[in-house]
Specification:
- The structure is a single chain.
- This protein is 30% helix and 16% strand.
- The protein is an alpha+beta fold and 89 residues long.
- The chain has a domain of 48 residues.
- It is elongated.
- Bound molecules: zinc ion (2 copies).
- The site of one zinc ion has 5 residues, from loops.
- One zinc ion binds next to loops.
């Protein structure tokens, strides 16, 4: 059964490769983004909030730009700066 053993090794190595790729996938960097063309606030909501993307499209004028070389996501508040409302105790 040398053939099925080789097949199993193939499957295992493929799975390991996929796992390594998943681990290497970086989370998008949260940024405060404004459209460079019209100045409209750019927020990535829904699907785009979690999907890393390089280029952003303005919802107001259609301008497409790339704020950084790495994947970014337009957020309302940067992490740690969401404390506009005091925490209720
Ligand atoms: Zn975007
Ligand atoms: Zn715009």
């Amino acid at each position: 059964m040398a053939q099925s053993r080789r097949l199993l090794l193939n499957v295992v190595s493929t799975l390991l490769m996929f796992q390594a790729m998943k681990r290497r996938r970086v989370d998008p960097i949260p940024m405060l983004l404004w459209c460079p063309e019209c100045g409209a606030r750019h927020l990535d909501e829904g699907e785009f909030a979690t999907k890393p993307h390089h280029t952003h499209a303005c919802q107001t004028c259609g301008m497409v730009w790339r704020p950084a070389l790495v994947p970014t996501v337009g957020v309302m508040f940067l992490p740690g700066f969401r404390n506009l409302k005091p925490p209720t105790s």
